[in-house]
Amino acid sequence: MLHDAPLKAVEYLHRELSRIESDRELEEIVPNLGITRRRAIEQVWLVLDQRRQD
Question: Is the pLDDT score of 54 beyond 80?
Fold first, then answer.
């Protein structure tokens, strides 16, 4: 799903995730995400890197 999102949306998601300070805060915003804040940011970075290489 993230791979299909427009680049601007992925960049926005990265900015927003970077503002979140803890896993608990992320859980409050996105319940049942199932991954840590750090892992979510890593996933976004992977997509951003891939997009920038294309």
Answer: no
